[in-house]
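Issue 218. Parser rejects a valid record. Input:
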Amino acid sequence: MPRAESAAPLGTPVLRSPLLSALKELAASRTLRLEPDVPLRVAVVAVERYLAPHAGAGPLGPGDSYAYDLTVTDGISRVKCHLRPGLNRLVHTLSLRSGAEVRVSRLSLVHDERRLHQSFVRVEDLECCPGGESAVLSSVGSLAALLVWPADDAGNSASLQPDGPLRLGRKHYLSLWNNEDAYGPIWIRFTFRVCVFFLFTASKICLLSDLEAFFARSKRPFPLLVRVMHKSRLRYYGKPNLAIDFPYQAYFEVADQSGTMSMVLWNDLCLKWYQRLTVGAVLYLEQYSLKSSYQHRSRPQVSAHLVAFHSTEICLNPHSPTAVLSIVPPQNVKPQWRLPDVTYRFTPRTEVEHLSSNQTVDVIGLVTFVGRVERVRNRGNTIPEKYWTYRWVHALDGTSDSPFILEIFASSQPEVFDSICPMTYLVCTQMRVCREPGSALYLTSSAETQIFTTGHHRKQPYLSDPQVKAFIQWTKTLKDKLMLRRTAVGGYYCYPPPPPSFTPIALDDLKVELESLQYREHKRLAIQGHITAVRYHPWPGQITEPSQVCTCSPHASLHGSTNSLSRLVLLTKQTSIPIPPFLLCVYPSAVQLMAIEKKLRFKHMRFLNRLRLRFYPLIYLDFYSEYVLVRMILDLTQRTGQSQLS
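Output the parser choked on:
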């Protein structure tokens, strides 16, 4: 029969665990299935994601590209379980998350036929409990003290396996919301290992300018001595049937006295070296290989005095041959090596306006606004589907009253990306200028963008840059109280502005598309029609009187409680069919419908009644899986010839 291992001291009374009892009953079942009489009330400790062995083949189509493992506890014991693919949607909408409380109504025990004595528990059905953080977790002092259901007397393992997925074929987890960030102890384990530095003689090295000749003659080149000039974010290229344990790739631009060249870090070497290879580090490379450079990729802008070799790139492989890397300590770097210094292009805010689109700059500023983290789906119907995470940031540099508007994508620096907050010093390198018709200029990340905020600036090469020193002197003249009044966090940030035209879409198709939205994802659309009623609903968690419908009477008021959730019922211009309620919801802060950038407000419903006789208002919506925000945009000049609203 299954037994439990405990980290509790001897003599400590062991409480009866409903979860452990259910797992024992499951292991003894002939059908390997269990439906408890009373659903198991457990808390979710962790939700972990990895690439499914057969992505896209399940009933949910491309949504099955990833599988999820859950670690759950009842406060006494814990177990890692596999989530049935049909329940993945609960993770996509953040209904199932760490800290949530769930009721598990059906379990099964799955034996892995390809591995002897290996099995795992699968959650077949569960229900998410309403409310915030689980009361079960709040009663747990330490996760290490919980009982673990690891094995039975026959040796069948259903252990926690903290370092890897339960299902065969995958050896590591992915970050929950994107593929660019390193996740799990398998990365951290190598991060703090001590580097071994090898002795070498400078007479046996070759220059980057010589590598093209070596590649043409298919001759193994001599070792290299280079400096890292630029570093790209991680790229995960895993596929369902790709037999590579760690399918990662990272590009570096390295340079010596003869010029610059791309260096590619492959697969297992990314785990060991990616987080240790920083910009400015000096490397001694041996047993590397050469190949023709991949031309269809973005490249950072390098210094004008350096020659760029784009036809060949350096490959550091984990095998055939196994590349040997050594990091040279800064105190051992000799001037006679003539390695170029890392250079930056810090551009003040006053000069950014004069730059052309797609030009690359480096910026430094004091953060005044940080938006929520959002996700955008990768273009194309790729399998597995990929998401990028990003956030909008405003930063001042003292040269202009206008801030930098920054669209910062995750750059494989989760500890920095998550720590961006107002009143911190932010440095962003290799940002690209974006100009869109009808909107102000903004800067967006490139593949080589690196971000640094307060607490991460130490020993960075840019500290000696004159523009950085001037910025630091400016910040010393600021008064914290005055600057804090200009700061903001979160909220809805609509940028760039919506396009002048939208692609027509049927309501049925729109419903399917909106229901497929995942956590932190949004979609823009415009709806034109008559406003016929406004219905107020209680905000979640608030107990109020039943909602009432405000019809378009002359004396009805649009002002409702700030704790109300409004729904608009519209009649479309073409069909005169009410738009389904799931389409239109107003966030509490937008109950007073904002017209023309918050300059016009509907203070009375008679105003709306008069408006209906003149033209059709245009409703602009941004749909989020967290909430839905409705914003009203009225084109008065085109439809009435003049504004009669004041």
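Fixed in the parser; the record now loads. The radius of gyration is 29 Å.
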